[in-house]
Here is the input.
Amino acid sequence: MGIETLSEHRCFGGVQAFYRHDSAEIGLPMKFGVFVPPQAAHGPVPVLFFLAGLTCNEETFAIKAGAQRYAAELGLAIVTPDTSPRDTGIEGADASWDFGHGAGFYLDATQEPWAKHFRMESWITQELRDLVLSNFPTLPVRVGICGHSMGGHGALTLALRHPGLYQSVSAIAPICAPSQCPWGEKAFGGYLGPDRAAWAEHDAVELIKSGRKLPPLLVDQGLADKFLPDQLFPHLLERACADARQSLAVRRHEAYDHGYYFIASVIRDHLNHHKGTQPPL
Here is the structure.
């Protein structure tokens, strides 16, 4: 499986690079970034997959979050997938910012015309995972997942739907109950169709209610986030986790909004969470 290097950048003693490969799952070329810390020169290191939010791509987190400094200190690789297939030729895929290109919602679509290419869950949990573990100095027993907003939804649901695949999980301002918010209703209706039972299989709150479990979970939420009242619903996640005895820490931050200034302010804690909650080698 060939990987094309698009760019490489020396960064805090490691390398931040961006790549493209021909994805069998997606049926189109897909891009992703990888930060390899300096410790990888001496052997494989733990790896964190970071899933970005609506409108973002494989470069957004790498450029804006300032995570490489801390990842280099911790000896942690970071993988940043694109948020959807691109150039699909699907009519309407660029019509809105919260559905279609840049808004894959980290699931495998079942409805036409999306089902052929919008297979983000399979790409991330199978194909991209195997590609990274096979081609970069990373440890298959030390894989974490984190995300922001739509990507926070993805981190939670992919970990819940694939038990044992990720040894650590966290999220920043995640869409916690997408079946109950406008973003999720639009995406799930388009990608999965009208059957709400199918939606529940991609809703973190509903999955936890059904008995699915996660490693100890860290969530950060800004209280000045304009999307908090109508889209994110961390209180529903707290309630579901309390009822299910799922370990969860939700930290609420006065005056912080939804954007990358907030992500940059808490990302060190998330990287420490992933390094600290991973099982020992």
Observations:
- Residues 260-277 form the longest helix (18 residues).
